[in-house]
Design a protein that fits this description.
Shape: globular
Radius of gyration: 18 Å
Number of domains: 1
CATH topology: Rossmann fold
Structural class: alpha/beta
Strand content: 25-35%
Bound molecules: adenosine-5'-triphosphate
Protein name: ABC transporter ATP-binding protein
Keywords: ATP-binding, Nucleotide-binding, Transport
Distance between the termini: 34 Å
Number of helices: 9
CATH class: Alpha Beta
InterPro entries: AAA+_ATPase (IPR003593), ABC_transporter-like_ATP-bd (IPR003439), ABC_Transporter_VariousFunc (IPR051782), P-loop_NTPase (IPR027417)
Helix content: 25-40%
GO molecular function: ATP binding; ATP hydrolysis activity
């Protein structure tokens, strides 16, 4: 569904992504992990066509992202920080987006209900708390029933109840055959929903493994422990066990 071949993105002489190759398929929940500045957001933005890499190819459902923009209609994106017309209400933002997507006539409003956003949909975006803004971003990501979801730090700022609701939704959609890419530093949040882990460091791909492989090779049950150890000791941790 997403094929990345030899992707390199430079800012001047600095390599934000260095020769990354990977493939992601439907039904997977891929957690993109790595220290601050390792290239996770750059990779996500490259897939979204928001960052243009110098070399390499990204294909989404067979479409080269540099040549064909139509693939974007099938992606739901939850950004790290959602930016909206600040004087519009939640209801107006949702209505505006629906009007922009006339090709879609069936909406996924489950999260709007689960987060009880109807009760506050008259509030303007500028008046919302950080967590409520995150909830709106999550609702919008799922609204048009995309087959591919890209979520940058989705649980950051959410309270534990909202975080659980979102994780359940992600697991449900994964089971419905969607592909979900997630970046997060709250690895404990991802433990139950991650099927694959892609680990980046200094713009390079250190490993891309199934969660099961990672657990088996380290002897640790909980992914957050595995990843915390790798972050502290480097990837050698895994090979020394
Ligand atoms: N527009 C830009 N100009 C110059 N350097 C950039 C630009 N965007 C990103 N970088 C650099 O590229 C590297 C990768 O950044 P990126 O945001 O992809 O990291 P990240 O893994 O998502 O980090 P974090 O965990 O902090 O969100 C960083 O060193 C960053 O400073």
């Amino acid at each position: 569904m997403i094929k990345i071949e030899n992707l390199t993105k430079r800012y001047g002489k600095f390599y934000a992504l260095n020769d990354i190759s990977a493939a992601f398929y439907k039904g997977q929940t891929v957690s993109l992990l790595g220290p601050n500045g390792s290239g996770k957001t750059t990779l996500i933005k490259s897939i979204l066509g928001l960052v243009i890499a110098e070399s390499g190819v990204i294909k989404v459902n067979g479409h080269d992202v540099k040549k064909d923009w139509a693939y974007k209609a099938d992606i739901g994106y939850m950004p790290q920080i959602g930016r909206y017309p600040e004087n519009m209400t939640i209801r107006q933002v949702i209505r505006m987006l629906k009007e922009m997507r006339k090709d879609v006539n069936s909406y996924d409003e489950e999260l709007i209900e689960r987060f009880s956003l109807r009760a506050i949909e008259h509030k303007t975006m500028k008046s919302l708390s950080g967590g409520t803004r995150q909830k709106v971003s999550a609702c919008l990501a799922f609204l048009f029933r995309p087959n591919l979801l890209i979520m940058d730090e989705p649980t950051a700022g959410l309270d534990p109840v909202a975080s659980e609701i979102l994780k359940n939704k992600i697991a449900l959609e994964r089971d419905n055959g969607k592909l979900i890419l997630i970046t997060s530093h709250v690895i404990s949040d991802l433990d139950e929903i991650t099927s694959h882990v892609m680990y980046l460091q200094d713009g390079a791909l250190v490993f891309y493994k199934t969660a099961e492989e990672l657990r088996a090779s380290t002897g640790e049950e909980r992914l957050n422990k595995v990843i915390a150890a790798i972050m502290q000791n480097g990837y050698a941790y895994e090979n020394h066990r």
